[in-house]
Amino acid sequence: MSIIDTDVHPNPRNADEIRKHLPAPWRDGFAMPRRPFYHNPIHANRLDATPPGGGPAASDPDFLREQLMGTYGIRHPILIPRTFANIHPNPDYGSAVATAFNAWLAETWLEAYNDDGAFKGSITINHHDPLAAAAEIDRWADHPHMVQVVTDSGARAPLGQRQYYPIYEACERHGLPFAMHPGTDGIGGNTLPTPGVPTHYIEYHCGMSLAFQAHLLSFLTEGVFERFPTLRIALLEGGVAWLAPLLWRLDAYWRALRKDTPWITRPPSEYLDEHVRLSTQPLERPGRDEHLLALFDAVGAERVLMFSSDYPHWDFDSPTRAFPSSMPDPLRQRIMHDTAAELYGL
Amino acid sequence: MSIIDTDVHPNPRNADEIRKHLPAPWRDGFAMPRRPFYHNPIHANRLDATPPGGGPAASDPDFLREQLMGTYGIRHPILIPRTFANIHPNPDYGSAVATAFNAWLAETWLEAYNDDGAFKGSITINHHDPLAAAAEIDRWADHPHMVQVVTDSGARAPLGQRQYYPIYEACERHGLPFAMHPGTDGIGGNTLPTPGVPTHYIEYHCGMSLAFQAHLLSFLTEGVFERFPTLRIALLEGGVAWLAPLLWRLDAYWRALRKDTPWITRPPSEYLDEHVRLSTQPLERPGRDEHLLALFDAVGAERVLMFSSDYPHWDFDSPTRAFPSSMPDPLRQRIMHDTAAELYGL
């Protein structure tokens, strides 16, 4: 089976690889961004993901080809650099960081190390400046290996709100999916995923799926998919099993409260089915597989789920072990390959 | 079948009924609290819940006995006044409002109109002042019809954090469950249920279950049930179907990250099973009942769920129609009566 892995994180070998793409005055102060609190108490990356020649995990394309793609038969990793571009209160700095990571990704993984075209990339934007973000999309949209636009779920407002529409216009203009990935919640003025400040990393980590649910509620109630009928959204690393319960509630209340959002002309779950895709890692696994498969059945998993490993992060999901062994082969084929191939045109 | 309805909202006939229990300087400025935004676009209460003699919905105990208890055979409504005590930045005012509502509830519904002892009440606290809240619990705990402590989920911090422990000490001291109810999120300095500000009522309403998930994550990761081994928590009107997915994720990450919270010595789902109960309204109903019943099975619904109607609110769940008709009778008996009878000692 040919596999598409929809959440893989390449890293620069060092800060200079990014710094060289930053203009003054940003270049001098730049350091590789990291979350300064909620540290993972064990380790952030798979310990075996450090390249033999040294450097950060997932900084060596050849070693990633061997350890991830070779081991599991992954045809296309969708590359999502961890840029933290939207942690900067200064929107010009945030947008410059996004541009620098895009230039680095294009020049290295997508060009210098991509003879076979296996690596597909994501255009990072700083969504705090929607017009600059739209210009950044315009800048990279024609790159042959850029297949989507991405931002982090750390935001100051639910992402379905109208101030972000220049971003979705640009996505539609170029036929690129808009992807959301966790990681900058609660940093640099971004809201946290939970009401109030979570204490421990595990609370913050589990809370990330709440931020995804909130952003999805916003997309589905603001009418984003009525306004942008060809827009597709990829929810990456936000969890999966919460989707059915959320849609059950939203559909029921939409029916009762449709005076509140009259532009939503169909049950919200129908928009979800057409416009939204979710990557699977970290897949919630119950004690009994049939409970998960019931939820897969409830959301039409064959249409909405796409495999992801989150390589090289510590909570990597293996293609061979992430899913119940009782999952039917046609569904497996859809999740491991077909749905992502359709979304990204691969 | 004898039914216990765990979420019923009695209202004062007018503001004077509360005002008379407020000392100076609070008395003069008091008005009946309401949420000043996110108004329900249709109507907040069942239109037929207005008493024949006039006055607010659910302000006439005799009419409530007829319309709710008589119609459905409800033996005990657990009464939860909508006090909004925790919307006040001034903690003294908030605590005074809580005290006034408690005095009103005791004097009217729990005493003057309660010859048969059917009405059971909740001690409202202002959790922003934990020591005052503990004193309020001490004040009312011996009342024969006060069966729990309640606060709203609108908070400034996740409710499992240690600043709230005087409240849980008081609950344990008196053997009273601690209940959480939605409604004040985003008001008076309380955080919203979602990252950023939701736009419409439906988004806010569906987001309430996210606040409940966040508070539950806090209770389960801070070690509240290790510190207070006899504490019981009731999550009222926060939804139900999200519980299994949340616990699957939390259990898996607890196993991997237990260095982060070493005081949690068992899978978090085990603490949930022993310590936490959820009321059912608004019950998420999928298109196919077996999907909901799979989630009931996954969480041990026979131990954790308690029926609630949310009378007199507009989205009332009827005892005869809230649940799938295929739900087994023994489970129905547990949800409609037994679990609540055990929690509240009825």
TrEMBL record, chains A, B:
Keyword Calcium belongs to the record: no
Keyword set, alphabetical order: Lyase
InterPro entries: ACMSD, Amidohydro-rel, Metal_Hydrolase
Classification via Pfam families: Amidohydro_2
Amidohydrolase-related domain mapped to chain residues: 12-346
Coiled-coil intervals, chain numbering: none
Entry keyword annotation includes ATP-binding: no
Protein name (Swiss-Prot/TrEMBL): Amidohydrolase family protein
Organism expressing this protein natively: Actinomycetospora aeridis
